[in-house]
Amino acid sequence: MNWLLFWLVLHVLGAILAFGPTYAFPIIGDLAKRAPQHISFALRVQERVSSRIVLPLSASLAVSGVGLLFAAGVNLARTPYLWVAIALYLAGLANGLFILLPTGAKLVHMADAMTGARALASAGPGAAAAAPPAEFMALIKREQVFGAINGAIVFAIVTDDRQAGRDRPRPAVRLTVRTRC
What we know:
- The protein has one domain (3-164).
- Helices cover 72% and strands 0% of the residues.
- It has helices at 3-19, 25-34, 39-72, 80-113, 118-121, 134-164.
- The mean pLDDT is 85.
């Protein structure tokens, strides 16, 4: 069995499955902004996807990354770009675990406490909808900022090897896939 190919496929698929859903969060947030009666549902969707898909799969990338390093025989002492990528990965994981998840849970709790999302959406016929509290909007902004930071971290990790490694020789790792016909 080609362990390098196994770990590489597992690592790439894990990254796609872990971070892919997060690109829908701004769309979900925009829809909730346009239809405030659905804010609670939108926040619950984002919190559930983050806690049950994004965080566990992003944590599993450490396992597939280590497997990939061993299978490829990479010497970490000679690959500073990997140290940068590992540091960024740990920063993004900490951001998600200690900032984004607790903030999302607090937002869900606040949305439920605002007498249901109906109070945000309809104050009665012809009346303007009540605006969410300032603290709620500050938490939304915090989610947006730190979510964007994690997006930038993922982008930096993906492009780190291409940017930092122009002056070093490329490793002689060659992946071959053999199929039986």
